[in-house]
Design brief:
By secondary structure, this protein is of the alpha/beta class. The protein contains 7 helices and 4 strands.
């Protein structure tokens, strides 16, 4: 009896190994399909890919229409090439951000909107965040094209100063409330960013 159990061990190991490889192959196939879908979407580039769903979708779409009306250049150059998605940086709740990544010789631009921030934000505030992140993507694209681009702390601070102040300018242009404008100014003060547009 003991001998037959020992003989079955290699067979059990091979079956487990086969099942593991089959599962791994399936997962790799799914990942490949998702990657190819992303690449195909990147190559289309005719309109932004809004991956936001549920209750936030109508508000994000309204915010995008505001950006398209008031910032047609940024909308056409950056936002129309971007994926719009919900996302947060771990440990930094309420922070929206952007990602520039290269996938299989294609470039993907991502604007990640914080669900926590969207919960209480107005459509104008959401529009200003989209403009803000799109401008960061424009900076990142410029860095990719120019190897001499300076990326030290001073350069990053200048980038944030320019973008935050443009966000204020945008909010004033679209008729944002004092509360919406003061919200951005509060963030700027916390980051020691000078307010050029009082």
């Amino acid at each position: 009896m003991k001998k037959s159990c020992l003989l079955n061990e290699p067979i059990r190991f091979r079956i487990a190994q086969f099942n593991y490889l089959r599962l791994l192959t399936r997962q790799l196939f799914i990942c490949s399909c998702l990657l190819m879908t992303a690449v195909l979407f990147c190559k289309k580039g005719n309109a932004q890919k809004v991956l936001v769903t549920g209750k936030y979708l109508p508000r994000v779409e309204q915010a995008l229409s505001i950006v398209a009306k008031y910032e047609p250049d940024i909308f056409a150059d950056i936002i129309c090439q971007s994926y719009i998605q919900l996302g947060e940086i771990p440990g930094q709740p309420g922070t929206s951000f952007c990602i520039l990544e290269d996938i299989a010789s294609s470039r993907a631009l991502w604007i990640m909107l914080s669900p926590l921030r969207l919960r209480d934000a107005t459509n104008l505030s959401i529009a200003s965040v989209i403009v803000h992140e799109a401008m960061h993507l424009r900076y990142n694209l410029a860095m990719k094209h120019d190897p001499t681009w300076v990326t030290d702390a001073a350069a990053r601070h200048l980038e944030h100063t320019t973008i935050y102040n443009y966000q204020l300018f945008f909010l004033k242009r679209v008729g944002a409330t004092r509360e919406e404008i003061e919200g951005v100014k509060g963030v700027m003060r916390s980051l020691s960013i000078p307010i050029i547009h009082p």
